[in-house]
Amino acid sequence: MGSRPFPVVIAAPSGAGKTSLAQALVERNPKLVFSVSATTRPPRGAEQGGKDYRFVSDPEFDRMIEAGELLEWAVVHGRRYGTPRQEVENALARGRLPVLDIDVQGARQIRRAYPEAVLIFVLPPSAEELNHRLARRGTESSENRIRRLETARHELAAATDFDYVVVNDEFERALATLEAVIAAEEARVQRQQDLAGEVERLERELGEILERSR
Question: Which of 6, 21, 64, 173 stands the most exposed, by the fewest C-beta atoms within 10 Å?
């Protein structure tokens, strides 16, 4: 008996740490696979194409939309981001759980495409800490940081649309909470592939034990 695979969506205001959590989650669990998003923004810092993001041109992104290759896409801070359909479908077909590191708009679209998806919203411990994390990146201009903070203020209202909320105050604790959420979701009765057959098998074996014991 095993559970049916499902997408795991992790969204958060920029700077809350969702990408680091999503990548660490995948590294620690062989059943999970990171879904690499496509984006029209240039690489930031040490980011690698194909690993962190699939960096594409605007014409290529247009082509992907027209070809129906994206499960969802959205404009975030003036750049487009999207989830390649094949990434998610391939993972599910292999019995793996695709982990999607996406924004709030994208999370809503994934919910419509995959009602069985689990949506997790990551919160920073405080607004001041969020501001510090964005400043520490060293890759944002002051104007961009302010714009991200303004977007974060609006995105917070979406937290109530998600299944779970995890506060990223201490990284290992937040990561452990994410792992617990996924383990609990895998154990849901509705996700089991042959629960009736498993129960029937156990009942039969118990009957045989009882017969031998009489």
Answer: 173
